[in-house]
Design a protein that fits this description.
The protein has a seven-stranded mixed β-sheet with strand order 3-2-1-4-5-10-6, with helices on both faces. A three-stranded antiparallel β-sheet has the order 7-9-8. By secondary structure, the protein is of the alpha/beta class.
Length: 257
């Protein structure tokens, strides 16, 4: 397992290759957004712009923002018909309001939840739509538990990078920031990881980097191998790893300020 060295954990090649399921599963969320021609749409945490481009294909004027320079560079080179800005979603201040905000698999990476929800509300016109999906309560619970246990046994503290709320936790948070929740759904989505035997280690390298911040590089492979041994009886099936994903999806409307 190779540690990242440039401060930007995101690898566009891996994201669009071995982990393309992130965008593929997000296509279903577009039906909740249902973008209309000439609408202004903001895609928060756009990654490499795959879903941003699909929103634009429906005739909307869409801007994608992401904090990763590598992802934004790939988005710009791959989708020249869309606009992309490297920006912190907690501080984004557009020149004019949007009709809708869309976000897939990004919000759970943001620790300052109140700040990002306030920023999104301020970016929307009154009556504008906010449609998003993020990891829900107990998302990747088995993977996380196995990894945290192995790290503790070796004397390392696990720095969990995600925020996975329940509907009961997140709906009041949305309401506190000026949204009316119109629909919310929590559901299991077991997700097959690509590349067979290497699927889990590749997943941990891209999505679990922060767990290994205090771990010397020469110990990482042994930790990953131990986690694989622990999870193999439950999450390795027919030659592939299955991540125990659980998702929270919602649609909300911005109320009058």
């Amino acid at each position: 397992m190779e540690p990242h060295r440039d401060g930007d954990q995101w690898d566009p090649d891996a994201y669009d290759g071995s982990h393309s399921f992130v965008s593929e599963y997000g296509e279903d969320l577009l039906e909740w957004l249902d973008p209309e021609p000439d609408e202004r749409v903001l895609d928060v945490g756009c990654g490499t712009g795959q879903l941003t481009a699909k929103i634009a294909a429906r005739g909307a004027e869409v801007i994608g923002i992401d904090q990763s320079e590598a992802m934004i560079d790939r988005a710009r080179s791959s989708h020249s018909n869309c606009s992309f800005i490297r920006a912190d979603a907690t501080e984004f201040d557009p020149d004019e309001p949007f009709d809708a905000v869309f976000s897939n698999a990004a919000l759970h990476w943001i620790s300052e939840q109140d700040a990002v929800l306030e920023s999104i509300r301020n970016a929307l016109r009154s009556g504008g739509r906010f449609v998003a999906e993020l990891g829900g309560a107990d998302n990747v619970r088995m993977i996380t538990y196995a990894l945290e246990t192995e790290l503790r046994e070796r004397g390392y503290e696990a720095a969990k990078p995600w925020y996975f709320p329940s509907i009961g936790e997140y709906a009041p948070r949305l309401e506190a920031h000026g949204f009316e929740v119109r629909s919310a759904r929590m559901f299991d989505r077991p997700t097959e990881l690509e590349n067979g035997e290497e699927g889990l280690s590749n997943w941990l390298e891209l999505f679990g980097e922060e767990f290994f911040e205090s771990v010397p590089a020469d110990e990482r492979d042994a930790i990953v191998a131990a986690v694989e041994d622990e999870l193999r009886p439950t999450l390795f099936r027919d030659g592939s790893w299955i991540a125990d994903y659980r998702r929270l999806r919602f649609a909300a409307v911005a109320l009058e300020a």
